[in-house]
Design brief:
The complex is a heterodimer of chains A (about 270) and B (about 160).
Chain A: E1 7-10, H1 14-24, E2 28-31, H2 37-42, E3 50-53, E4 63-65, E5 69-73, H3 78-83, H4 85-90, H5 92-98, H6 104-109, H7 112-117, H8 124-132, E6 135-140, E7 143-148, H9 149-152, E8 153-155, E9 158-159, E10 166-173, E11 179-185, E12 195-202, E13 205-211, E14 218-219, H10 221-228, H11 233-237, H12 254-272
Parallel strand pairs in A: 1-3, 2-3
Antiparallel strand pairs in A: 4-5, 5-10, 6-7, 6-10, 8-9, 11-12, 12-13, 13-14
Chain B: E1 2-7, E2 10-15, H1 22-29, E3 48-51, E4 54-57, E5 70-72, H2 85-92, H3 102-115, H4 121-127, H5 139-149
Parallel strand pairs in B: 1-5
Antiparallel strand pairs in B: 1-2, 3-4, 3-5
Helix pairs in contact in B: 2-5
The chains are: A alpha+beta (about 270), B alpha+beta (about 160).
The structure holds FE2/S2 (inorganic) cluster (2 copies).
């Protein structure tokens, strides 16, 4: 499959990328690792006139200890996050979820920023970031702003990133003592999750992010408040699908997904020590 | 546009469209047809090559993303007539039938051992999850990778 023709420009820095976006407006698409955009372009579901390659902006590839949180550059590749010692010790859930993305080849190329900017409810990483209460840092024409993970995913394949914006950093609260579990249910290795649950248990509270349980990545808020109120893992998990509208497709219907969400959330809570 | 890269140690520079995928650059423009296209949707791994030493799926990359990088394909593994230890292990363990998946499987396996030099059987199976084989049932492929990890000795 051959994508539609486009003009290629390489951004040399974050500032240069913003200039290029301002110049080309909605004609342009950002290319990071390419593992979300290139498949869409091959199917011609996306046909940008201009592709702005941000994949070589090394200043946006890092994991730093920033006091109470980890600062992760948007262009940090999955493989780096999966194997990074800081991420492993301070936000193990993110490392664990990242290790389940695609396959090794995909993780060598794909970036955390690219994965979340795609806004795909079937993606693993948004669920982990929701459970961890991460914050996204977005640079735009009017300067920099921070968006909580709850406000970041706004709809199906839609996020808070505007057409002239660049996602630059993901801030993940450090939770070295938290228990965590990432439950991904699929039928074959390497497949997308039919449903997934990212669970973080920290003292008497928990965070639960779900994969493929609504039109956008979502939290299981009912489970979180039940745990905070002292409920057992099994009782809390019963609320995992409450208020959510999971998709029906050839892998699973709505009821089956609701069932999976409850089971995976319970297993996740138990494994994480709730 | 001019896209240049080092392929198997030799500098190649070709005038291609920006939309040219890396796999097409290698096969159609550079004439290296050892890398196969199976699914064309980053599922099967038949198109796996190394980009700066790491396994990637060349059907899901534009050639221009590899501009100024080093690419190794299956043609670059053997040293003259001497097979790479992974190729030798695939040969000895009969790790292929039709052979379609083999170039990608070998490139993925070499990259796996770079990252995990002494993998368990489970780690080999998981490490090759991005490569599909429709013939062998994977058993002999896993055996070959484990043999190559053990120093390539046939007597293992
Ligand atoms: S052809 Fe590239 S993964 Fe199948
Ligand atoms: S040997 Fe035929 S696909 Fe693997």
């Amino acid at each position: 499959m051959i994508p539609a023709a486009f003009d290629y420009v390489r951004a040399e820095s974050a500032g240069h990328a913003l200039e290029l976006l301002a110049e080309h407006g909605d004609e342009a698409k950002l290319l990071a690792g390419g593992h979300s955009l290139i498949p869409l372009m091959k199917f011609r579901l996306a046909a940008p006139a201009v592709v702005v390659d941000i994949g070589r902006i090394t200043e946006l590839s890092y994991v730093r200890d920033a006091g109470d949180h980890l600062a992760i550059g948007a262009l940090t590749r999955h493989r780096e996050i999966e194997t990074n010692a800081l991420v492993g010790s301070q936000a193990g859930l993110l490392a664990g979820a990242t290790a389940k993305v695609g396959d090794p080849q995909v993780r060598h190329r794909g970036t955390i920023g690219g994965a979340i900017a795609h806004g795909d409810p079937a993606s693993d990483i948004p669920a982990a970031l929701l459970a961890l209460r991460a914050t996204m840092v977005i640079d735009g024409p009017d300067g920099q702003r921070q968006v909580s993970s709850d406000d970041f995913f706004t709809g199906f394949l839609e996020t808070a990133i505007g057409e002239q914006d660049l996602l630059t950093e993901i801030r993940v609260p450090k939770v070295p003592d938290a228990g965590w579990s990432f439950q991904k249910f699929n039928r074959r290795a390497q497949d997308w999750a039919i449903v997934g649950a990212a669970v973080l248990v920290n003292g008497g509270t928990c965070g639960v992010g779900l994969v493929n349980m609504d039109s956008r990545p979502v939290r299981a808020a009912g489970v979180e408040s039940a745990i905070a109120g002292g409920a057992s893992a099994a009782d809390a998990a019963a609320a995992a699908a409450d208020g959510l509208e999971p998709p029906a497709d050839l892998n699973a219907g709505v009821e089956y997904r609701q069932h999976l969400a409850r089971v995976l959330t319970r297993r996740g809570l138990e494994e994480a020590g709730a | 546009m001019q896209v240049s890269m080092t392929i198997n140690g030799a500098l190649v520079s070709l005038d291609v469209e920006p939309r040219t995928l890396l796999v097409h650059y290698l096969r159609d423009h550079a004439g290296l047809t050892g890398t196969n296209v199976g699914c064309d949707t980053s599922s099967c791994g038949a198109c796996t090559v190394h980009l700066d030493g790491e396994a990637v799926k060349s059907c899901t990359m534009f050639a221009v993303q590899a501009d100024d990088c080093a690419v190794t394909t299956i043609e670059g593994l053997a040293d003259g007539d001497v097979l790479h230890p992974m190729q030798q292990a695939f040969h000895e363990c009969h790790a292929l039938q039709c052979g379609y998946c083999t170039p990608g499987m070998i490139m993925a396996a070499v990259s796996l051992l770079d990252e995990v030099p002494n993998p368990t059987e489970a780690e080999v199976r998981e490490g090759l999850e991005g490569n599909l084989c429709r013939c062998t049932g994977y058993h002999n492929i896993v055996k070959a990778v484990l043999q190559a990890a053990g120093g390539g000795g046939a007597g293992q």
